[in-house]
C-alpha cells in the first residue's frame, strides 16, 4: 500500500499482536504492517488477546476496543495489573473524545480511528515505539485535556456503579443488576464519595460528570 516504517531496517520491530473480531479488518491490518514486523499474531477476542500476552509480550498491541467478552481497554488494565508493559494502540470506530480520554487515562499509548488512512496507523506505531503517545488529530485536544483531568482511583466495578447512580438507579436496583448485596453497593458508594470528596448523591454525580468519570 506504499506505506513504510520510519526506521531504515526492512523489518525494524519483532512482534505485534492484532486484536479485532472482524477477520477482514485484522487481515487488512496484517497486510499493512507486514513490512514493519517479523511476526504478526491475529486474535479475535479480548480473552485471546490476554492469553497471547500471558504467553509472550510483543513489541506492541494493536487492538479494537469493542470485542466479544473483555473489551480492549479492560484487557490492557488486566495485563498491566499482571506486570505486562507492552504498549497498546487502539484502532477503533469509537470517535468520541471521552472514549479516547478513557483509553489514554487507562494507559493506552495510541488511539486511532478506523476511518483514518492506513499510513496513520504506521505513523502512530513508529511514534509509540519511539516513546510518544499518538491520538487521531481530530480527537487529540479534547482527549488529552480530559485524560489529564481525573486524579481519582476507582475500580471498574465502582465506575459501573457510578454510571448506574448517574442514571438514577437506587442501591437495591444496582445490587440486582450487578448480582451483589445492597450492603456491597452502599459500601462502594461510600468509598467513591470519599475518593471524590463529596457527601451526597447529587453532589457525587455532578463531581463525577465534571471529572469525566461518567460515560453517556
Automatic annotation (TrEMBL):
Does the record bear Transcription regulation in its keywords? yes
Start and end of every Response regulatory domain? 15-129
Output the PROSITE patterns linked to this UniProt entry: HTH_LUXR_2, RESPONSE_REGULATORY
Membrane-spanning residues where?
none
Which UniProt keywords are listed? DNA-binding, Phosphoprotein, Transcription, Transcription regulation
Q: Please, which domain of life does this record's source organism belong to?
A: Bacteria
Identification of the protein by name: Response regulator transcription factor
Q: Which organism is it from?
A: Stenotrophomonas bentonitica
Amino acid at each position: 500500500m506504499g506505506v513504510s516504517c520510519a526506521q531504515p531496517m526492512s523489518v525494524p520491530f519483532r512482534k505485534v499482536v492484532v486484536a479485532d473480531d472482524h477477520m477482514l479488518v485484522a487481515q487488512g491490518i496484517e497486510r499493512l504492517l507486514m513490512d514493519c514486523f517479523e511476526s504478526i499474531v491475529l486474535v479475535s477476542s479480548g480473552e485471546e488477546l490476554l492469553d497471547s500476552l500471558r504467553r509472550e509480550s510483543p513489541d506492541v498491541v494493536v487492538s479494537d476496543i469493542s470485542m466479544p467478552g473483555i473489551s480492549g481497554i479492560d484487557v490492557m488494565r488486566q495485563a498491566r495489573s499482571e506486570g505486562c508493559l507492552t504498549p497498546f494502540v487502539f484502532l477503533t470506530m469509537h470517535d468520541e473524545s471521552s472514549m479516547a480520554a478513557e483509553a489514554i487515562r487507562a494507559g493506552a499509548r495510541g488511539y486511532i480511528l478506523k476511518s483514518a488512512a492506513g499510513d496513520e496507523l504506521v505513523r502512530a506505531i513508529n511514534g509509540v515505539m519511539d516513546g510518544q503517545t499518538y491520538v487521531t488529530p481530530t480527537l487529540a485536544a479534547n482527549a488529552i485535556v480530559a485524560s489529564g483531568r481525573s486524579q481519582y482511583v476507582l475500580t471498574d466495578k465502582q465506575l459501573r456503579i457510578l454510571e448506574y447512580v448517574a442514571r438514577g438507579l437506587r442501591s437495591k436496583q444496582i445490587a440486582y443488576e450487578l448480582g451483589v448485596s445492597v450492603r456491597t453497593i452502599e459500601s462502594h458508594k461510600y468509598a467513591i464519595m470519599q475518593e471524590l470528596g463529596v457527601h451526597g448523591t447529587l453532589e457525587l454525580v455532578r463531581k463525577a460528570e465534571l471529572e469525566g468519570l461518567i460515560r453517556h
